[in-house]
Automatic annotation (TrEMBL):
E.C. number: 2.7.1.5
Domain named Carbohydrate kinase FGGY C-terminal: residues: 254-445
Protein known as: Rhamnulokinase
Keyword check for ATP-binding: yes
Source species of the chain: Paenibacillus albus
Family: Belongs to the FGGY kinase family.
Amino acid sequence: MPSILAYDLGASSGRALLGRLKNGKIEVEELHRFSNDPVGVGDRLQWDILRLFHEIKQGLLKAKHAGVTPASLAIDSWAVDFGFIGRNGELLGNPYHYRDHHTDGVMERTMERLTASKIFGRTGIQFLPFNTIYQLAALKEADSPFLQGAERFLMIPDLLRYFLTGEMHNEFTNATTTQLYNPLEGRWDAELLADIGLSSSLFGEVVQPGTRVGSLRASICEELGIGSVPVLATAEHDTGSAVAAVPALERDFAYLSCGTWSLMGTEVDRPIINELAQELNFTNEGGVYGTYRLLKNIMGLWILQECRRAWERAGQYYSFPELVSMAEKADAFKSLIDPDDAVFIHPGDMPSRVRQFCAASGQPVPETPGEIVRCILESLALKYRYVLELTERLSGKSFSGLHMVGGGIQNVLLCQWSANAIGKPVWAGPVEGSALGNLVVQWIAQGELSDIWEARQVIRDSFPVTVYEPQDGTRWEEAYGKFRELTGLA
Ligand code: ADP
Ligand code: LRH
């Protein structure tokens, strides 16, 4: 059975996995792993897109050195970000990072001008200040030369695919995250595009996951000394791929894709676009094979990543396992934060922001790294309970437990505390959810797997799922009361 290649680019790191189907099981080999380091230049925070492309080539070289010519490859990445192609076919500037400050205040102004109900009613997408629509509105307000020279809009995986193949397509799952795609009409929303002053001609044909969208350019094959490889569009939004890989047996399942972000929700057959969904600020992101992800973004392990970076800048390096072990030794429920408070969105001195939040809400101020990490992880677990309850309310479903996938499940304390907080079992696995979702969509396209439910069964048969049973119910119930009071969450 030939091998295929999946590139999964997260906001904090990327990897290339080689996958093979053998006797109804998936075998994976990690060919290449690299950090993803955004770069501040002047006032702007940008993605190092050419370095990411270099790492993609490194993955191809490592496949060659392993003696493998992949039968296909596909790329998924974080959502919302993009670049423009100019009339000479070249990329105009580095894509901005969605955490850059150029969108400050733009969402509020756009919502006021267009109305929130119009934007939500036409897209079903939650309001996040960095959604593509607000990034584009910010560039328009700033009269950006990139926008002036733009001929085509490509999101990050579209762009990397274009570098590989020379062909331009916009992929569906990622396109929905722009808040400019109308899922009811099944196309870019011409009215919203006109409202923010953008020409529809920038936005190309939207292709579904599993579509073959080209093959490696001859120049790349020559440079790397390899044969041509077919390139597919997969579920190119990493969360779309992660949810495709949830090893659920039942159709009504709840998931938490746990990495830089925590994305919690359920899969639905059609977008739920109503007043309650808008009020609770839930989203309906496009998924595989006609599904949608009714979910909510929770700030996630970003806060921990940024604390770790701040300590590293101060000369103190801690690994994630070290931080988890320090948190375990700190006192329980000393102080809590609302992880989704806007103060935590942008990069910066995160330990100070956590301390300030605690001081301003009249709680003891966590001082040591262990105390700070404990505060972050307990608060995340409590927020998971809150959002899980909202998901049940909005979807009308009732969940018997929670599937957790992604790099964050290596944090066993967070998995256990999540089970404690929700009072239900957590089923943790697989770690490489997005890369596996990327692979199974390719296999379904090639007819190697019949559909997403067979794919989920094969993933279940191939990778361990760790079960965390809830513990300490009374203490977590009390903490949840304190958390809601403190955060003002109704
Ligand atoms: P993304 O795809 O968004 O870049 P990942 O899914 O790779 O994120 O998850 C990264 C997160 O996983 C890190 O921020 C860290 O909190 C957690 N993590 C990674 N490795 C470990 C580990 N060995 N122990 C505990 N947590 C870990
Ligand atoms: C997770 C993710 C998430 C988006 C955010 C920008 O990596 O794709 O689904 O909201 O990044």
